[in-house]
Design a protein that fits this description.
Blueprint (H helix, E strand, L loop, with lengths): L2 E5 L4 H12 L3 E6 L9 E3 L5 H15 L4 E4 L14 H27 L4 E8 L10 H21 L4 E8 L21 H12 L9 E4 L7
Parallel strand pairs: 1-2, 1-4, 2-3, 4-5, 5-6, 6-7
Helix pairs in contact: 1-5, 2-3, 3-4
């Protein structure tokens, strides 16, 4: 039985991942910053604050037992030309997407290291390997997550800790619903992503999945 924490578990992708893993019999804690009523398996966390992250992991393991898998789904996006990007938007994007991922991955790594291993899955984007306009702050963070994931894999291999970057093309979420010029048929569904996350999460510890690129039929929209 795997014990899983899904960070960003109230977003469109996070909800689908949480639902899929629970349906497959895993014990899952959903953690997010917009949780208003906490339960043992639904916790509030501000991933930009170290104290909040540490407290969340303590409470999650009190509910689950020792952590097996961490899935980082939390993220924000600012899509403006770089010369029009404010310092506030830049800092907020880095705080959530990169520093938040670092804080969660570091704490999960520390706990897994003392227990013989585990698996980290970070939700990435085509912006982590392609140069796209209007993606300055977002791409900077996603390239950072790519580097962080690689380092975690190298530092974790002696301890049975595996890290995966799941690099996604366009996924039909609430972000796209106000843009009717884009069709859901041309995108991945959140269920597609959840299926892939589940498949990675059940791999045996001798299998390292460094990166998966999941894109819709037309590639980059």
């Amino acid at each position: 039985m795997r014990n899983v924490v899904v960070v960003g578990g109230t977003g469109d992708i996070g909800r689908a991942v949480t639902h899929k893993l629970r349906a497959e019999g895993m014990r899952v804690v959903c953690a997010a910053n917009d949780v208003t009523t906490e339960t043992p398996d639904t916790l509030r966390v501000d991933i930009t604050r170290e104290d909040s992250v540490l407290s969340m992991f303590d409470r999650a393991e009190a509910a689950l037992g020792p952590l097996s898998v961490l899935i980082n789904c939390a993220g924000v996006g600012v899509f403006t030309p770089l010369h029009e990007t404010s310092l506030e938007d830049w800092n907020r994007t880095l705080d959530v997407n990169l520093t938040g991922t670092f804080l969660c991955a570091r704490e999960a790594f520390r706990r897994m290291k003392s227990r013989g291993g585990g698996r980290l899955i970070h939700i990435g984007s085509v912006s982590d390997h392609l140069t796209l306009p209007m993606n300055g702050a977002y791409a900077a963070t996603k390239h950072g997550v790519r580097g962080l994931t690689g380092v975690l894999n190298e530092e974790g291999k002696a301890f049975g800790i595996r890290a995966t970057l799941l690099s996604l093309g366009a996924v039909y979420t609430s972000f796209w619903r106000s843009r009717p010029e884009f069709s859901p048929a041309d995108m991945l569904s959140v269920e597609d992503v959840a299926q892939c996350v589940w498949e990675i999460s059940i791999k045996p510890p001798n299998v390292r999945v460094d990166e998966v690129r999941l894109v819709p039929p037309q590639g980059v929209l």
